[in-house]
Design goal:
Blueprint lengths: L2 H45 L4 E6 L2 E6 L5 E6 L2 E4 L5 E7 L2 E4 L4 E3 L2 E5 L2 H10 L8 H7 L11 E6 L5 E9 L4 E9 L3
Length: 188
């Protein structure tokens, strides 16, 4: 069989297979390009967003923007401290910060709303001596053994485009550490 007869017999099949192979390669590159574009957008957003965490140094607790963009309208959800029976003892209401530049610190302040009058008596002794949030460890070991751990702190803030973000912080009382459990964009 000569080459001419081969192409006359199988030419259309070879062309079809070549076109299908080309189509497969184009689909593969389209999928990879789409993945690359999504990852590039994600990395750009991560590089240009605010990221607010808590900083604990020298006995002071502060908000800290470790991101590359200012954080606006920073608020923290109220924090309920409950006992082991899940009854609220007191509620902490945190200050609002309107602007936190990248790398900047802002002092965390709060107001205490006492639900349990016994907690009020005990807390007034410790508030001046031991820093938030770690005074709870002293309380649970001494006069107020039924105090439970803190719930996570939820910090809300926005970027320049008014996109909402939040950071979830878990105070670790025993270790006297602050753990960032999540941070990211929030869907509205």
């Amino acid at each position: 069989m000569c080459l001419t007869n081969f192409f006359d017999t199988y030419g259309s099949m070879i062309s079809t297979l070549a076109l299908l192979g080309t189509l497969g390669v184009l689909i593969k590159y389209t999928v990879e390009t789409t993945r690359l574009r999504k990852e590039t957008v994600k990395q750009t957003e991560l590089n240009q967003r605010p990221c607010v965490v808590l900083d604990y140094e020298n006995g002071r607790i502060s908000y800290k923007n470790i991101g590359n963009s200012p954080a606006f309208n920073l608020t923290v959800e109220q924090l309920d401290l409950r006992d082991v029976d899940d009854e609220t003892l007191f509620i902490l209401h945190f200050n609002q910060i309107y602007l936190l530049e990248p790398g900047a610190l802002a002092e965390v302040t709060w107001d205490v709303e006492y639900i349990n009058k016994d907690a009020e008596k005990i807390l007034t002794v410790f508030e001046m001596e031991i820093d938030f949030p770690f005074f709870i460890g002293v309380l649970s070991l001494t006069e107020f053994p039924q105090v439970a751990e803190y719930d996570p702190m939820i910090i809300h803030y926005r970027n320049l485009d008014n996109t909402p973000y939040q950071s979830t912080i878990q105070p670790k009382v025993e270790e006297q550490e602050i753990e960032v459990t999540s941070t990211g964009k929030v869907k509205e």
